[in-house]
Amino acid sequence: MTASTTSRVDRSVAVANFPFPFPKETYRYSTNVEPASTPRTTTAGSWGEHPVDIDHAYQDELAERARILSSDPTRLQCLPHMVPAAWDAMFVLMELLADSYPEHMSLTREGGGWRWRNRLLGIDRGFAIGEASSMPEGPLGFIGQQLQEDIVLLDQRDGQLWADAGLVTFAADWSFGFDVGMSFLEIHGPVPRVHDEGVIPRAQAFLMRLEPGQSYRRTNWTLTVDGKLDTSTETYPQWGPDRTSLVEGPLAQVGERLHLRTEVQHLIRLPESNAIMFLIRSYLLPFAALATVPEWASRTADVLEELPDDMAEYKGVLRTREVGVRWLREFGGACEGGAAGAA
C-alpha cells in the first residue's frame, strides 16, 4: 500500500468515525450531557460505542503523548490525597479497555493481585492495587500512556468539585498545570455567558449527583491549525503563530491546514474513591475532509458565521473562522464525493 493510499484510507476512517458536534445551525454553551456507550449515527458513519476509543491514530497519538511528557513532566500531576482515586481510575480504565477490546486487552486475577496485558503495545504487567512498587510510574502514568484520552480526576468535598489529579497532554488552549488544585467553578470562570445563564453551577450539580459507576458524555469543539493536538497555553509560542500564517496565507491552503476539533468528554463516577473521572478525547478533521460530507460543510459554515464574537474569542476561533467560512463556501463543494480524501 502506497503512502498516498494509506492517507486516503486513514482519512476515510477519520471521517466515518468523526463525532460531528453541531446538531443545529447555531451553537451556544449548554451542559448537553447524554448517557455514555450509546452509538451515535452520523451522516458519514457513527461514533460513541466505547467510552475509551482506540482508533487508527492510536500509535501516533501515544508517541506524541510520550514526547510531550518527556519534555514536560508537569502534564502528569496527582495531589497526595488523590492517590487512591488514581488507582481507582486506572482499574476502571483497564476494565473498560478489556471489555471494549478483548482481542487486544485483558485484565485477570493473579494470586493476590492482577495482571494487565495490552497486546497492541506489548505490555504484560502484574500489579497489586495500592502497591507503588508494582507500578513505579504511578497508576495514571501507566494507564494514561495506553489511551488517547486525557484524564482529569475531580475530588468532591466542601460542596464543590476540585481538579486535583490528571494526565493532560492534548489541552486545547488551557493549562492543566495551572488549573490543578482549582475548583470546578474557578476553572470555568473565564467562560463567557455561562454564568448569567447558570450553566456551570447546573453542570457541577449534575456531576455531584452521579452515582458510582454512572457514565455520561458531552461534546465540545474548537478550531485548530495544522492538526496539532497539543495547543496548551504552555506551548503557545509553538502554535500561536499558526493562526497568523493561516489567515495571511493562500485561501486554497485552508482546507488542509484548518481542522475542526471535537472533544468527546466522558464523566464517570469512580466506584471506590467516589472521585469523578473526566476523560477528554480530541478528534481532528481537516476542512478538506469535512467538506466531503456536504451537510457538515454547510452546517459548520453556518455555525461559525453566527457564533457571537465573545464566544469566538474565548474559543480561540475569532481570527480563523472567517477564512474557514470563506474556504467552505468557495472550495467546499469541490471536495464532495471524496476528492478531499485524495488530497
Topology readout:
Layout: H1 3-16, E1 34-35, E2 40-41, E3 46-47, H2 58-71, E4 76-78, H3 83-100, E5 105-110, E6 113-118, E7 123-127, H4 139-144, E8 150-157, E9 160-167, H5 176-179, H6 184-187, H7 194-197, H8 199-208, E10 215-225, H9 236-248, H10 254-257, E11 258-269, E12 276-286, H11 287-290, H12 294-306, H13 309-315, H14 321-330
Short description:
The protein has 343 residues and is α+β, with helices and mostly antiparallel strands.
Any overview of this molecule?
This protein has 343 residues and is an alpha+beta fold. It has helices spanning 3-16, 58-71, 83-100, 139-144, 176-179, 184-187, 194-197, 199-208, 236-248, 254-257, 287-290, 294-306, 309-315, 321-330, and strands at 34-35, 40-41, 46-47, 76-78, 105-110, 113-118, 123-127, 150-157, 160-167, 215-225, 258-269, 276-286. The strands form 3 sheets. A 7-stranded antiparallel beta sheet has the order 1-10-11-12-8-9-4. Strands 5-6-7 form a 3-stranded antiparallel beta sheet, covered by helices on one side. β11 and β12 (276-286) form a beta hairpin. Residues 1-6 and 338-343 have low confidence and may be disordered.
